[in-house]
Structures are given as structure tokens and as C-alpha cells.
Design a protein that fits this description.
mainly alpha; 3-stranded mixed β-sheet; 5 strands; 62% helix
Amino acid sequence: MKVQHIQFSREKNAEFVAELKRRVNQYFKEKGISKQANFTMVLKTISMIALLLVPYALMMFGVVSNIWAHYLMWAIMGLGVSGIGMSVMHDANHGAYSKSRTINRVIGRFIDLVGGNATNWKIQHNLLHHTYTNIHGLDQDINAGVVLRLSPEQKRRKFHKYQHIYAWFLYGLMTLPWMTVKDFFQMVEFRKKNLNKGRSRKFWQEYTLMVAIKIFYYSYMVVLPIIILPFAWWQILLGFVLMHYVTGGTLATIFQLAHVMPETMNKLEIVDNSMEENWFVHQLETTTDFARNNWLISWYIGGLNFQVEHHLFPNICHVHYKRLSQIVEETAREYGVVYNNIPSMMRALIEHGKVLKRLGTVA
């Protein structure tokens, strides 16, 4: 069983694409800077890792002994995990962190150390999501099962009319099934769909490695705290769940604000496995920037509020997105191409809620 292959137009808006690429390349040439990470990115990497490991160390070495402080540490660790996901391993797995493939591979594996799997992530995110953005049945990032309707092509069920209320609570559950069961089933699914071809390891080697890393993850995140910390096992498990709830809620919300928005949720015309539009313009039509002037949000979420720029140039480190956004917006305006941008985080949250309500009530 293979994934349906969609062809995008090469002719439509070709001049826009060529000019946009030229201007972006010219920017880096004139500035004499690398498209990869800089010293600021290295500091951010250290900060995000510290956000996870410092609270963990404070608990494990007995500095934190109060139960409520214990839960606070787990919540901060959740911010660290999502920060590593958005600001560190994300760039590395796109090859945007360093010119060195080895460095990208090592840093990209940070996702394994916080419970995920780099191989699965790159197939789902780099291959499927970035190639077939918002295309129902191909982009797994908008597939939340039957409980949420995140695409106008998805079947609407009666309970979806309440999803604009309950979705926010479900977002926090995103990473728990991912870390426990989804990775195991997903790796098998990707093999059946021939999506893991070209990997350096054989399937059984990759699967064995995943199992080993999962054992290591649950050993240091759950087993060791149960053995060492002066709390009941269920209190530690509750802290672990809290960490993932913070992580899942953060990751899911940021993703939805970039893709499940009023301007991006349109039915896509696919005729004979072909799209009428150019791939670059398709990315512009299915992604949204938000809160571009909020430096703190941009810093923490790895520039994913510049989602347009990320989808157009995923191999460029996110520390350059703010400047690129000016180039992309200006070029898009000149060529009459859509460019989606919502000025604030609050406005983006409100607009996403409206889309959830619309998808839940309109067939």
C-alpha cells in the first residue's frame, strides 16, 4: 500500500517562485551570513535543555521536597520538552541547524530523549506534512481521529458542534499516546506504505533502537523518580502526566494556529492526483503567520509563528525567519499571491476557535 502521490503545477506562478528564491538567496549573500544556526541558536539550545534538566535535577537531588513544588517542576519540564521540540530538534531534523549532517542527526535525536522518535517524526512531518500541507488523508498533522474535525473533507459528526469547547482540553493529551503507543504502530504503518525507504538502517534495526530508547526514556523519567523521590508512585505518575499535558497543549495549540485558521481551511481541488496550484503558493495558502512582533513567543516556539517562512524554506534556521518574512510578504504582494498574517497571539486563538466551531457545524 503506497501513499497517493500528488503533483503540483510547475508552470503556475513560476516567476513568483523564482524571484522569491532569488531575493532570499541574495539576502544571505549580501549579509554574508549562514542559513544555519548562529550563536543565539546555541544559547537557546542550552536554555531549552536546561528548562528540562534543571527541574529534574532539583527533584532528584532532593532540593525540591514539597509536593506542590514537585508538580511545578514537572510543569516547567513540560515547557522544556515542548521548547526542545519546537526550538531545537525541529531545525535539526530539517537540516537547518548545521551544515554538518552529523550534528543535525545528533541534535535531531533529542526528540528520542524526550519520548518521541526522530525517524517517525521526519516521515510524518518533513515528508507528509510539508509536502501535502492540509491535504486530507495525506497530512497526518490534521488527523486527530474522529474526536476532532480539522479538515472540511473529514466527515462531520454530531458531537463536533462542541469541539470549539472541548478541543482545548484535548490538545494537552497529544503527546501521551504518541510516546506510549503511536510510535510503535506508526513505524509499522509507514513501512507498509513504503515511506521508510532509503533509511540507513533496516526496519528491524530501527524498531529495535526505538524500543531501547523508549525503555531508557521511561526508566529515567518514571522508574528512577519512583525509586528515588519521597512521593507515592501515583503522585510521580501524576507529575509525569502533567508534564506531557503542558507539552501537548503547547505543541498542539501552536500547530493549530499555523494551519487550522480561517484562510487556510478551504477545500482543495485534486484532479487526477494533480493540484492546479504551484507547491510554493499552496504553502502560502495553507499556512498562517501570527504574532510576528512578539519576540518572546518567537524565541520560545522556535519561530513557528513564522509558519509561512518555515514551510517555504524549511532548510533555513528559524533565527532568520523574521527578516525573511518581510521579503516573502513584499514579494507575495508584488505578484498578487496570498500571504496570511494575524498580528497577535490572542487574535490567532480567537480565529482558531471560530474555525473549530465552523468545522463542527458546517458540512
